[in-house]
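To fix ideas, we give here one paired sequence and structure record:
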Amino acid sequence: MRPASVVIALLCLALPGVVHAQEAQAAPEHRGFWVGFGLGGGSNFADFAEGARAGVGGYLRLGGTISPKFLIGGEISGWGRDQNGATFTESGMTAVALFYPAGRGLFLKGGAGFAGWSSSADAGSTTSTTTAGGFAGTVGVGYDLRIGSNLYLTPNLDFMYHTMESESSVFAGISSGQVLMFTLGLTWH
């Protein structure tokens, strides 16, 4: 058998599978309940004069599907860092909406809710902790990359904005925090 005949025979055998995979990709991927989580890192820009402060972060997101292009849900996100023996964290609990312009793949995210700040430091055998709360807003962009029938690898880039009300000396002069965070997550639809 000539090499050209072998190639044509293999293409004829593979073509139905390729067409079926293309049709499956064209079908809406979002339906019903969905859940996702991710881990990564980012920087806090609370005081631009001091520069960015790097830390670790993550999220847990879940909700329901309104249409293949529009998902709604809730998200718990957090970011933290250690500096000179003290631990600083920012967290948000927000209602979020995800919009997929093409119905799958790339999405835009926005949400609003509640923010929490915490600072703890060890002084000898004593740990002192200070907390504050306020408003949380988030916007972001991500991409669902299919790795299974209902499983997606989801890189996200999020900007979180938190404001707070506190008279604490630990947070004196800080009324807002801005965190830019990159996470890599898994999402089930």
